[in-house]
Amino acid sequence: MFENINSLPADPILGLNSVFNQDRHPDKINLTVGVYQDSNGATPIFSAVKKAERSLLSEQESKAYLHQSGSAKFVKHIPSLLLGDDLVQQLDARLETVMTPGGSGALHLGAKLVSMSSRSARIWVSDPTWGNHYPLLQSSGLHVETYSYYDAELKGVNFARMMESLSQIPEGDAVLLHGCCHNPTGADLTKPQCDELIELMSKRNLLPFIDIAYQGFGKGLEEDAYLTRLAARTLPEVIIASSCSKSFGVYRERVGAISIITENEKQTAAAQTHVFSAARCSYSMPPYHGGGTIGRLLDDENLKLEWQTELEKIRCEMIETRSELSKGLNAAQNKVDFSFLNNSSGMFCYLGISREQVLKLRSEYGIYLLENGRINVAGISKKNLPVMIDRMSRVIGLT
Ligand SMILES: Cc1ncc(COP(=O)(O)O)c(C=O)c1O
């Protein structure tokens, strides 16, 4: 059966990570994969997560199959985190949340739901977007198109062009929006821009499919949910794919959620049956451990507070790293003003360098970033920052 099978090319991000692991360069730096690292280059477990995990393990009495919607505590608390208590109460049975294996699982199920519900089965993603959006959405049966977003000249969002682009797309189509901390650019919309965007989506009857994978990494837990809450409060239908991987540091446990909002209780209940059916056709029901742990954490006010404090520390650290990188690069040369780095939000930003320069950083100095110039800011530590500044300055010919 398999005599004619050919290997597929490696995943652009995961493949690069493997090459990095084999690189023998003494000062090598990995800025590729979106995983938080502290100043020692470690990805520690949040202490609040560890405590919730211990309590779950000591009290767990069964390994019987879980309900398809996942841990009861998880699906009770995640909507409040995303939308706030008042809005959750207001939406009532118009909103349903289902636990998924990671944000990727949520994106997959959401895409399946759109694909079977929409006449066009088309979704529009920002240019650029997270590389894995394409295969994830396409393999769920959606046709993927792009709308204008980032402007390399402006080193930020070209909002006028984005709105122009969105006003051209056919009514009724789905639009993928990054809830916060846009991946890969780190360039987010301002609040007034979010307001204008949602107004346009309402006028043109566009379905927002919000991917929120970095809540708490940008401006704070509440602020990062601005777009998501605005859409949920204002529009009749919204799909939210959320990930707990980064915000709770539970990457390998695979925890996320899909939240569906429709015009009424009946439609939401029907949509949920399709989400369950799509899950049944692949993994049946979500794994318990990660979601069960987060459900416990969010159910305990003290643990929740401890987690929020830990998350806030990480957020502030990333802001500081960005600022140090920008200051360091500006001090090392005076040809390019790197202050723009401070405008990006979350784990990622674009360095604004060419593909050739990216490849040179990799081959000559063992510094790995994506070919589009995206770096994971958390990959820079106090220790490797001077190396990073020196090598960057050399490669872009500024010293
Ligand atoms: C924008 C975006 N959405 C979704 C995900 C999926 O996250 P998960 O690891 O929870 O599947 C990621 C992960 O990198 C991401 O960057």
Could you walk me through the main structural features you see in this protein, from its secondary elements to its overall organization?
The chain is an alpha/beta fold and 399 residues long. The chain has two domains: 12-45 and 313-395, Alpha-Beta Complex (Aspartate Aminotransferase, domain 1), CATH 3.90.1150; 65-299, 3-Layer(aba) Sandwich (Aspartate Aminotransferase, domain 2). Helices cover 45% and strands 14% of the residues. The protein has 14 helices and 13 strands. The chain has helices spanning 12-22, 47-59, 72-83, 85-91, 102-117, 133-139, 159-168, 191-203, 226-234, 265-280, 289-299, 301-332, 355-365, 385-395, and strands at 29-30, 95-100, 122-127, 143-148, 150-151, 156-157, 174-178, 207-212, 238-243, 256-261, 348-350, 367-368, 374-376. The strands form four sheets. A seven-stranded mixed β-sheet has the order 2-10-9-8-7-3-4, with helices on both faces. The longest helix has 32 residues, at 301-332. It is globular and about 60 Å long. The structure holds pyridoxal-5'-phosphate (PLP). The site of pyridoxal-5'-phosphate has 11 residues, from helix 5.
Features:
two-stranded parallel ribbon, binds pyridoxal-5'-phosphate, 13 strands, Aspartate Aminotransferase, domain 2, 14% strand, Aspartate Aminotransferase, domain 1, 399 residues
